[in-house]
């Protein structure tokens, strides 16, 4: 071939230089001379041919034997599997057919005796004998019982095969998904994205967001990820401009460009979709797209796009909100450098996510789970979070809190006998004031903020200098506990209420008693001055509220309305309304002038300990023993939000048994995202047999059914009039049973949620209910110390099993249905024969109440959990103790075997969940996350997920596999450990902290979780300018403060705080 540049010359060389060759790599001798590359890059054609042959021979591309063998092996395997499955299926179908044929034949044999008009005298002896036995005996009844039993067993087998086939298909689909990914990776390489892949569909612009999103069905997640990588590599900042140039000769890029132009012009990229204005649109959209994997991947793409192009910040922010609302698994995601604004991600689960370099502006992060996430060099500003700070320091229950008049300082009084002052902005303790010799029950600032008054169980009142913390005066006079102290508006008088039934007025300047007000018939829990200082209100254990004339000391009025103790009273700022909260779980509003009750606010499920008006008088906040703080509309008396947390000045007797103080932002409490959840302790949870639904029973008197995948509430079953202690699905999945403190058992249709039956018989509350394996019987354990068996169909009692000497806390059938186990507060476990009702064995060994018993799937072992902090394994056949598992540091409330029998889960009063290897009896994992006792644990049918219910009112779903991983095995954390010098204690804790396996949280008002979160530099500031790093630190985050510079300048001072 002649050279195209020098036609008279032959092509003699091939250019292999790594450049864009202007000679198209074909060179003649003349071209070689002027080509301008090293001679080693110009190879003679003969030598190039030799190189090509050697390269081809070494590639083995022409060696198809191995490929052919593997292809044939795979083909044989599939053919063999198909043949084997067909054989099993044919045998199964034939066997089932034979069973139904035999039943039908037996039915016909009986019918022949009744349908044929044959003279009995003409029957053979054998036929006549059978007919006589049918008439005088139980042969027909016995056959019907046997037939029904066989039919139920067949139905159970059908359900079993359906579940097995479903699981088998899911596994196959998972494998197919991996195979499809191999195909995609082979076919859609990075080069294919730029040149080969095409979408023949022409993009049509849409205004409706759902219609826009549906057009992403042909775009897979792998392709979108490659797009993001390409954009980052090219350092593109204008997505549309970049792809507009490429779309001229690439159909795919043209499609993407048109799609993104469309998105840029609709409301989704202009408005905040997390607001109430878009609530219905959001709900409808989520219903349409929640199960579409392609749309979920595209929404993630929009989130990542915020790190590249600022023109798509709002649609990316809205996308993150939708992903959170849809409960898409966002754990372990890389969100590096994303920019999110004007949205809500309330309750989002971002465990171990990378947020390095991210920018958040005006984002509500309330209740987000950021455990073990990475937040390096983040710029989070104008952040909304209803939890401002967690103040740790007290070693006993906190009884009282009070803000200083300027709002900068918080005072707290505790059972640890101390008073503490806290900086509200930083959360740091300013001072610790000691002096009282018993519990501090009340603290109150003077109007000028210079003096703090405290009342104690040591019967004294003390006045303290706020600036120095020194004692100014000790006021003695009360003969019992001082429950309440309150300054008059002018600061000259202090009022106190006591267990000695009296109210006393004190001169603040002299410390002398000015007056003693008698009238209450029992303890005085609360005293408060009216805004003008002329009236004093008091609340008492005698169930009354009294109004007193401060000047004369005379009682002006007595307000009756509460049916139990009055814990708290408060005046509105205009002085016209008085609010009161009591032990009857209610709040009353009173007209101060007339003394008439204006309204009664019901909703709390526990005693109302504290109440307070908002500054504008339109809202009333109430704090209760049910662990919630609620906001009420004063004008209408309606609840404004189910679970808002807010602390105000003058809160009395409001504290926590977890020895911590939490500060909450009342303005961010009005969450746009409606999070469902129980209003009180969740006592028990149970998976449906197909694993799609979780049932929960609570002390809020309700049963709720939850979608396991999304956490969405499917149904709320109401009917019980008191605490629901137990819920249990029937093995066939058609029914749900519940036991309650209202002494009733109720049966519910699992599909419709309708109540089927109400069973009475116990003389006290039912603590535990459980179905027999055939779903025909139900057993119950009660406060009346009895165990009972019931017929599910008729609701009639089969038998009453007596023997326990105290409350029966747990009942459980053996897998074969022949034995019943019961655990009791008499510290014993008993085995009962289901058929005879006789006690078979009594197992002693625990030294405290038994709270839970559970059979292993093979029926050979019983596990029990007790108040003695231990779990024990028992041999069912011999009744002997096989093992004792120690690890919990509190009561063990619940034990549950995994369906595969390899693992036992336990939950306890130490707030932890533990997983145990059944074979080795060793603890293999520990879940931390609940903030109160774990009352119930339950495995999903496939053993991969664990559900837990807690006294913190929440339900959590945990990834069992993830829980067994340790951060010590994670190179990322090892690198951090080596990069930053840390104190031994801190670094050790960082490297051994277990991964949070939370899949889902179901609760009314989740709190921020940030255990093991890594924070370096950057800013975390709320909309008030408050630094949130102290809040994160109180949650267990690790704050690296300028460690790199410190390590360079002074390595020994480079520490983690």
Tally of DSSP helical segments: 18
| Main beta-sheet strand count, sense and barrel state | 4 strands, parallel
Oligomer: single chain
Instruction: Calculate the mean pLDDT score and round it.
Output: 82
- The helix content, as a percent range, equals 10-25%
* Unreliable spans: 188-203, 641-657, 669-675, 964-977, 981-993, 1042-1057
User: Span between N and C termini?
Assistant: 76 Å
Over the alpha carbons, how many angstroms does the gyration radius reach?
37 Å
Largest sheet: spatial strand order:
4-5-7-63
Number of strands: 64
Strand-residue proportion = 25-35%
**Which structural class should the secondary elements be placed in?**
alpha+beta
Q: Indicate the overall shape.
A: flat
Pfam family, one: Pentapeptide
Keywords: Repeat, WD repeat
WD repeats: 391-432, 433-474, 475-516, 517-558, 559-600, 601-642, 675-716, 717-758, 759-800, 801-842, 843-884, 885-926, 927-968
Please explain how this structure is put together.
By secondary structure, this protein is α+β, with helices and mostly antiparallel strands. Among the domains are: 37 residues, no CATH class; 167 residues, no CATH class; 35 residues, no CATH class. The chain is built from 18 helices and 64 strands. The strands form 17 sheets. It has a 4-stranded parallel beta sheet. α12 packs across α13. The protein is flat, with a radius of gyration of 37 Å. The relative contact order is 0.06.
Task: Give the tags.
1057 residues; alpha+beta; four-stranded parallel beta sheet; four-stranded antiparallel beta sheet; 18 helices; 64 strands; 24% helix; flat; disordered C terminus; repeat; WD40_repeat_CS; WD repeat; Quinoprotein_ADH-like_sf
């Amino acid at each position: 071939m002649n050279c195209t540049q020098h036609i008279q010359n032959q092509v003699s060389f091939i250019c292999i230089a790594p450049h864009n060759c202007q000679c198209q790599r074909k060179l003649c001798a003349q071209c070689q001379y002027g080509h301008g590359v090293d001679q080693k890059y110009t190879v003679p054609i003969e030598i190039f041919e030799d190189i090509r042959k050697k390269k081809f021979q070494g590639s083995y591309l022409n060696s198809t034997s191995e490929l052919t063998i593997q292809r044939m092996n795979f083909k044989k395997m599939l053919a063999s599997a198909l043949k084997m499955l067909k054989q099993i299926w044919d045998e199964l179908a034939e066997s089932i057919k034979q069973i139904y044929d035999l039943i039908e034949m037996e039915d016909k044999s009986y019918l022949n005796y009744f349908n044929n008009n044959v003279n009995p005298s003409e029957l053979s002896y054998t036929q006549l004998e059978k007919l006589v036995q049918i008439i005088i005996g139980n042969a027909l009844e016995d056959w019907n019982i046997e037939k029904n039993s066989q039919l139920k067993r067949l139905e159970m087998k059908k359900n079993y095969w359906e579940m097995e086939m479903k699981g088998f298909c899911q596994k196959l689909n998972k494998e197919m998904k991996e195979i499809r990914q191999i195909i995609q990776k082979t076919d859609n390489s990075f080069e294919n994205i730029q040149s080969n892949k095409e979408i023949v569909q022409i993009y049509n612009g849409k205004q409706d967001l759902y219609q826009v999103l549906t057009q992403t069905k042909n775009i897979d997640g792998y392709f979108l990820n490659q797009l993001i990588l390409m954009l980052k590599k090219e350092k593109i900042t204008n997505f549309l401009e970049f792809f507009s140039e490429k779309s001229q000769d690439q159909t795919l890029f043209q499609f993407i460009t048109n799609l993104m132009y469309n998105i840029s012009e609709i409301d989704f990229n202009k408005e905040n979709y997390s607001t109430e204005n878009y609530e219905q649109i959001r709900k409808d959209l989520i219903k349409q797209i929640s199960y579409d994997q392609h749309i979920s991947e595209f929404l993630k793409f929009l989130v990542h796009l915020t790190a590249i192009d600022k023109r798509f910040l709002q649609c990316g922010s809205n996308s993150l909100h939708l992903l959170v609302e849809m409960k898409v698994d966002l754990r372990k995601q890389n969100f590096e450098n994303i920019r999110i604004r004007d949205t809500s991600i309330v309750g989002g689960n971002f465990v171990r996510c990378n947020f390095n370099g991210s920018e958040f502006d005006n984002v509500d992060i309330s209740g987000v789970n950021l455990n073990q996430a990475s937040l390096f060099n983040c710029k989070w500003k104008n952040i909304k979070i209803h939890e401002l700070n967690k103040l740790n320091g007290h070693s006993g229950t906190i009884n009282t809190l009070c803000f200083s008049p300027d709002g900068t300082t918080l005072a707290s009084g505790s059972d640890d006998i101390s008073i503490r002052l806290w900086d509200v902005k930083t959360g740091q303790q300013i001072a610790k004031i000691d002096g009282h010799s018993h519990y501090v029950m009340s603290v109150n600032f003077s109007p000028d903020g210079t003096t703090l008054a405290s009342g104690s169980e040591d019967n004294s009142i003390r006045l303290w200098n706020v600036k120095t913390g020194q004692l100014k005066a000790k006021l003695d006079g009360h003969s019992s506990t001082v429950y309440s102290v309150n300054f008059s508006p002018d600061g000259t008088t202090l009022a106190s209420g006591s267990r000695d039934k009296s109210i006393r007025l004190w001169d603040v300047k002299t410390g002398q008693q000015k007056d003693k007000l008698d009238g209450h018939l029992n303890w005085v829990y609360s005293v408060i001055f009216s805004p003008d200082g002329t009236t004093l209100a008091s609340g008492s254990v005698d169930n009354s509220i009294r109004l007193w004339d401060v000047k004369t000391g005379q009682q002006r009025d007595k307000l009756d309305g509460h049916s139990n103790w009055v814990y708290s009273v408060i005046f509105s700022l205009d002085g016209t309304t008085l609010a009161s909260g009591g032990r009857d779980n209610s709040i009353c509003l009173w007209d101060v002038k007339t003394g008439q009750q204006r309204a009664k606010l019901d909703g709390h499920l526990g005693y109302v300990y504290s109440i307070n008006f908002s500054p504008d008088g339109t809202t009333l906040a109430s704090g209760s023993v049910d662990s919630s703080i609620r906001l009420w509309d004063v004008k209408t008396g309606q609840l404004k939000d189910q679970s808002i947390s807010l602390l105000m000045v003058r809160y009395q007797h409001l504290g926590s048994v977890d020895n911590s103080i939490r500060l909450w932002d009342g303005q961010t409490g009005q969450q746009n995202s409606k999070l469902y959840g129980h209003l009180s302790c969740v006592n028990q949870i149970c998976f449906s047999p197909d694993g799609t639904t979780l049932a929960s029973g609570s002390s809020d008197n309700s049963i709720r059914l939850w979608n396991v995948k999304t956490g969405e509430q499917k149904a709320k079953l109401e009917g019980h009039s008191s605490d629901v202690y137990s819920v249990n699905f029937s093995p066939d999945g058609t029914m749900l049973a519940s036991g309650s403190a209202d002494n009733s058992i109720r049966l519910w249709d699992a599909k419709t949620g309708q109540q089927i039956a109400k069973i009475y018989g116990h003389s006290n509350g039912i603590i535990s209910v459980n179905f027999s394996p055939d779903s025909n019987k139900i057993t119950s354990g009660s406060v009346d110390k009895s165990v009972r068996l019931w017929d599910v169909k008729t609701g009639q009692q089969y038998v009453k099993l007596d023997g326990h000497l105290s409350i029966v806390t747990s009942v459980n059938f053996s897998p074969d249905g022949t034995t019943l186990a019961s655990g009791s507060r008499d510290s014993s476990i008993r085995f009962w024969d289901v058929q005879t009702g006789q006690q078979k064995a009594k197992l002693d060994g625990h030294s405290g109440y038994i709270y839970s018993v559970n059979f292993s799937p093979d029926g050979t072992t019983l596990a029990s959990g007790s108040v003695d902090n231990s779990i024990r394994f028992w041999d069912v056949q011999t009744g002997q103790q096989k093992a004792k598992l120690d690890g919990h540091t509190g009561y063990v409330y619940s034990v549950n075997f995994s369906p595969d029998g390899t693992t036992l889960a336990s939950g306890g009063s130490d707030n932890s969940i533990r997983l145990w290897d059944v074979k080795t009896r060793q603890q293999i994992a520990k879940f931390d996350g609940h903030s109160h006792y774990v009352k119930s644990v339950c495995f999903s049918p496939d053993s991969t997920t664990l559900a837990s219910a807690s006294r913190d009112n929440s339900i959590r779903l945990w990834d069992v596999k993830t829980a067994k991983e340790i951060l010590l095995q994670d190179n990322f954390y090892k690198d951090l450990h080596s990069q930053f010098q840390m104190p031994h204690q801190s670094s050790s804790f960082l490297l051994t902290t277990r991964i949070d396996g939370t899949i889902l949280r179901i609760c009314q008002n989740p709190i921020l979780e940030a255990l093991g979160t890594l924070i370096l530099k950057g800013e975390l500031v709320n909309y008030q300018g408050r630094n949130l790093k102290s809040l994160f630190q109180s949650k267990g985050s690790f704050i690296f403060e300028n460690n790199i510079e410190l390590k360079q300048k002074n390595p020994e001072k480079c520490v983690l705080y």
